[in-house]
């Protein structure tokens, strides 16, 4: 039976529809766009590191409120609650686009192509705008008609933050009396976020840029756990992510890392030490392999199989919801089309005709865009899967929140079906790698942005915003973020790119230089020593050397292999300088799916081992996707998430014993924890640490001499960075920020 909506008219937004307050002002929109770019950049950094992002709505709201209050003290005008809502709406688009780009686009490197700027920007822009447009017709069904059924947890929490910080004119419009605590509460929350931002920024700069202490302490084991190891990247952003996602997901991911590093790698070493021949897909003897080489040759495929299976299982589990979402979404579109245009400000959407025209225009551009290598079938698949998963994402976000929304599973399903269709059509050449990835990338970004849009519209519904203006704001935020995040992605890859001398990987390799047209020079640190211009060779086979990008001299002799910064394997420059690569775990999975199906060359035995891990976990009642991501990631990435999750567990366990929590339901306790001081400080840690990481990555390619001299000095003289005690000493500053998080998150006993 359809839901009984007879109770819906009783709902009253915080700001009534009859009220007229400043809303989509130029200053609110510009601030939202700028904050969206900043948080989008930090989210892109995180998704390349660990395959995760966190919602930016609450941090953007608090920062916007604070900056507008500072502007007021300087003689300007304070912002209304509706202006703050426009700012957070425009600012939230960056995070969802960053997730889609980071999950899909780096796969192009693994498939043997370059990260072309136009391809990346087109995917971001077209996918982001399409997701928003596809969600608009569903607003009335999902946000209004199912207001009591779909809670949209992050959107509801964001609305509470906005209401708590409402200025005097907003409270007057809402019919409330004076609330003397509102300003003090908003100021306190803002100070916590900015303090976390400052700590994260300073910590990361001193740690990484100035080599203040070792950034990844690690301990390796001998027999009986030979080749086993435990390490942790002691960064503020990963600590913050662990706190935000909570103990359950964080510990499950860390458990996957423990399986890889303390079970699978030692087991492969134990059984392979006595072998006298390499075991495919490895190319060297297992006895000669380091733990990292074992992981690259075998564990990554096992992890990829587990992640793919976990994503599909989570998608299958959501099938009843998918069916309901589709039917209700289609019904919502029909009802919206037939409904008489409302005159109420709070019920005005962008007109349906412009939604249809915009969506068709985007599909036409996708079909015609040369960098996407798209065809008619691919465009049709984007439209079908885009509508399907935009609907699913919007509804799942309302039920379980954006953090648990299985966007990766939807992308995996899109790629599986797309590649199978291409295989049946006989489309297996390299060009179709790009076509399939473009389909998956646009659908991924569209689904992610549809979920973010629905979350923002829920916030607006609660505070009494104008939906049409919110929709314009998030379209503007998505467009600008996509245009900026594309170049940032390319720069991050370039900053960690290594030019490996041919003698190391492909001695005496030559090619016909007359067939090569593109040219390139070295970038980053190595450019100082070699300013020559080379021909570019995209090698697709493994004869004479691994497939990949090579730089060739005028005689046709290979001089360098270009090892990308994202998912590259060479982590040292020829002079011995360490290079921090980005693992991009989910992008690797996407490339495995495309290449495995279209080329039929994937080591399916290892992949099936991973699938069975996911199946066993599901049979035991354990959510397999988070565990599978942990199997794939380095343990050094999941260990700090575990630490952050355990701090959250200790804090929640202690806070839940306070008197004011005793009357709360479990859902109310969870909501209180999600908007607590600990989450705010963690958000600051994430933003500060991630942005510092981006700036450090950029500067390493510019201030090359300074960076090298700092590294040389730290290696020779800094016991926190190098030496027998460096692992233990480097934990001292990390323990300090862990303790700061714990004590800030603890609530006072007096209410």
What do you see in this structure?
The chain is mainly alpha-helical and 751 residues long. The protein is 65% helix and 4% strand. The chain has helices at 26-50, 57-73, 81-104, 107-110, 117-135, 139-145, 153-164, 168-173, 181-209, 236-272, 291-317, 319-338, 352-368, 376-400, 407-425, 430-463, 467-495, 502-505, 585-599, 604-619, 624-632, 635-655, 659-662, 666-674, 677-700, 704-717, 726-745, and strands at 218-220, 229-231, 498-501, 519-521, 533-539, 548-552, 558-563. A five-stranded antiparallel sheet has the order 3-7-6-5-4. A two-stranded antiparallel ribbon has the order 1-2. Strand 6 (548-552) and strand 7 (558-563) form a beta hairpin. Helix 3 packs parallel to helix 17 and helix 16 (430-463) packs across helix 19 (585-599). It is globular and about 80 Å long.
Helix and strand layout, with pairings?
Layout: H1 26-50, H2 57-73, H3 81-104, H4 107-110, H5 117-135, H6 139-145, H7 153-164, H8 168-173, H9 181-209, E1 218-220, E2 229-231, H10 236-272, H11 291-317, H12 319-338, H13 352-368, H14 376-400, H15 407-425, H16 430-463, H17 467-495, E3 498-501, H18 502-505, E4 519-521, E5 533-539, E6 548-552, E7 558-563, H19 585-599, H20 604-619, H21 624-632, H22 635-655, H23 659-662, H24 666-674, H25 677-700, H26 704-717, H27 726-745
Antiparallel strand pairs: 1-2, 3-7, 4-5, 5-6, 6-7
Helix pairs in contact: 1-3, 1-17, 1-25, 2-3, 2-7, 2-9, 3-5, 3-16, 3-17, 5-13, 5-14, 5-16, 5-17, 6-12, 6-16, 7-16, 9-25, 10-11, 10-21, 10-22, 10-25, 11-15, 11-19, 11-20, 11-21, 12-14, 13-14, 14-15, 14-16, 15-16, 15-19, 16-17, 16-19, 20-21, 22-27, 25-27
């Amino acid at each position: 039976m359809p839901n009984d909506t007879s109770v819906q008219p009783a709902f009253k937004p915080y700001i009534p529809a009859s009220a007229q307050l400043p809303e989509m002002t130029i200053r609110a929109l510009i601030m939202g766009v700028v904050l969206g770019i900043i948080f989008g950049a930090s989210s892109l950094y995180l998704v390349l590191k660990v395959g995760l992002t966190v919602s930016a709505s609450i941090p953007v709201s608090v920062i916007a409120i604070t900056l507008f209050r500072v502007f007021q003290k300087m003689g300007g005008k304070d912002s209304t609650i509706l202006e703050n809502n426009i700012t957070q709406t425009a600012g939230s688009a960056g995070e969802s686009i960053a997730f889609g780009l980071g999950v899909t686009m780096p796969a192009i490197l693994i498939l043997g192509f370059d990260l072309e700027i136009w391809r990346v920007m087109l995917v971001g822009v077209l996918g982001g705008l399409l997701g928003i447009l596809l969600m608009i017709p569903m607003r009335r069904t999902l946000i209004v008609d199912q207001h009591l059924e779909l809670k949209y947890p992050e959107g509801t929490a964001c609305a509470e933050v906005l209401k708590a910080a409402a200025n005097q004119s907003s409270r007057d419009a809402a019919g409330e009396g004076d609330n003397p605590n509102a300003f003090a509460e908003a100021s306190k929350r803002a100070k916590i976020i900015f303090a976390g931002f400052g700590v994260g920024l300073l910590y990361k700069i001193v740690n990484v840029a100035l080599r203040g202490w070792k950034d990844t302490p690690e301990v390796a084991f001998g027999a009986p756990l030979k080749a086993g190891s435990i390490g942790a990247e002691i960064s503020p952003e990963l600590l913050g992510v662990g706190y935000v996602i909570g103990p359950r997901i964080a510990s499950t991911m860390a458990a996957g890392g423990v399986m890889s590093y303390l079970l699978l790698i030692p087991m492969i070493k134990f059984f392979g030490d006595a072998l006298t021949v390499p075991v495919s897909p490895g190319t060297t003897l297992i006895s000669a392999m380091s733990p990292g080489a074992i992981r690259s040759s075998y564990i990554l495929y096992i992890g990829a199989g587990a992640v793919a299976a976990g994503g599909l299982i989570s998608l299958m589990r959501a099938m009843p919801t998918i069916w309901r979402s589709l039917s209700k979404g289609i019904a919502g579109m029909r009802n919206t089309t037939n409904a008489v245009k409302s005159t109420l400000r709070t019920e005005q959407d962008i007109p349906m005709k412009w939604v249809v025209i915009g969506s068709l225009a985007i599909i036409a551009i996708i079909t015609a865009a040369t960098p996407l290598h798209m065809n008619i079938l691919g465009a049709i698949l984007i439209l079908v899967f885009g509508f399907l998963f935009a609907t699913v994402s919007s509804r799942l976000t309302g039920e379980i929140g954006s953090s648990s929304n299985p966007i990766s599973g939807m992308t995996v399903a899109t790629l599986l079906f797309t590649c199978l269709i291409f295989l049946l059509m006989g489309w297996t050449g390299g060009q179709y790698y790009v076509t399939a990835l473009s389909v998956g990338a646009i659908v991924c970004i569209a689904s992610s942005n549809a979920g973010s849009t629905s979350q923002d519209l829920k916030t607006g519904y609660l505070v009494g915003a104008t939906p049409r203006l919110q929709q314009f704001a998030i379209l503007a935020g998505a467009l600008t973020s996509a245009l900026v995040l594309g170049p940032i992605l390319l720069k991050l890859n370039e900053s960690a790119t290594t030019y490996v001398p041919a003698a190391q990987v492909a001695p005496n390799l030559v090619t016909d230089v007359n067939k090569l047209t593109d040219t390139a020079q070295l970038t980053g640190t190595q450019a100082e020593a070699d300013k020559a211009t080379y021909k570019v060779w995209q090698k697709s086979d493994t004869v004479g050397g691994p497939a990949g990008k090579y730089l060739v001299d005028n005689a046709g002799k290979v001089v360098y292999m270009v090892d990308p910064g994202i998912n590259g394997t060479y982590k040292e420059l020829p002079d011995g300088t360490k290079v921090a690569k980005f693992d991009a775990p989910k992008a690797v999975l996407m490339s495995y799916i495309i290449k495995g199906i279209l080329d039929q060359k994937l080591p399916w035995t290892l992949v099936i081992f991973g699938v069975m891990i996911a199946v066993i976990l599901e049979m035991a009642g354990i959510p397999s996707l988070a565990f599978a991501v942990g199997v794939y990631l380095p343990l050094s990435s999941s260990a700090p998430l575990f630490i952050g999750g355990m701090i959250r567990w200790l804090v929640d366990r202690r806070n839940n014993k306070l008197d004011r929590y005793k009357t709360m339901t479990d859902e109310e306790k969870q909501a209180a924890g999600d908007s607590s001081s600990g989450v705010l400080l963690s958000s600051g840690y994430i933003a500060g640490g991630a942005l510092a990481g981006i700036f450090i990555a950029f500067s390493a390619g510019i201030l090359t001499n300074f960076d090298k001299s700092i590294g040389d000095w730290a290696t020779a003289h800094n016991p926190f960075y190098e030496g027998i005690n460096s692992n233990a000493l480097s934990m001292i500053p990390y323990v300090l920020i862990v303790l700061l998080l714990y004590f800030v998150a603890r609530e006072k006993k007096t209410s």
